[in-house]
Amino acid sequence: MKKDTIQIDYKKYGSITELSEDYQKLWKAALEARKYSHSPYSNFTVGAAIELENGEIITGTNQENASFPAGLCAERTAMYRAGIQAPNKKFKRIAIVATRRGEEALASAPPCGGCRQVMLEFEKRHQQGFEILFTDADDNFILIDKPTDLFPFSFVF
Length: 157
Description:
Blueprint: E1 10-13, H1 21-33, E2 44-52, E3 57-61, H2 74-85, E4 91-100, H3 113-126, E5 131-135, E6 141-144, H4 147-150
Parallel strand pairs: 4-5
Antiparallel strand pairs: 1-6, 2-3, 2-4, 5-6
C-alpha cells in the first residue's frame, strides 16, 4: 500500500472589496440573480454568475421542485445556459452567492458534488480551467483556481 496526500491551494479574502472590480462585478451579478431563485421548500436562495472569455456574464439560480431530485443548483443552470447561449466561449470564472430568503447574511456556498462534476466537464470541454468564487462558513471569500482543484477524484467515462 502507498499513502498519498492531496493539497489544495486557494485564496481567502475577508471582504469582496479585497478582490478586483471584475470579481466584484461578477459577485454583484450572482447576488442579483439570486432574487430569481425558485426555492419555496428550502428558502435557500442561490445565484451563480459566469464570466465568459469575451467578458459576457451569464447567470443562473437554483430551481427547486416538490420532487426534490428534479431541482437544479444555480451553478448548473448557469453553466448549462452558457453551454446553450455561448457554446464556444470558454469560462473565465464563476461566482456563487447564497442566502436564506429574507436575510442579507451570506451563507456558505461551495459547489455540491454534482456541480463540481459539471464544472469538470466544462473544464474538459473548453480545455482550460476557470476560477470559482464562493463564501465559506466564516464569511470569507474563497477563490479556487480551477475545478480540478476542488474535485481531484471525479467520474471519468
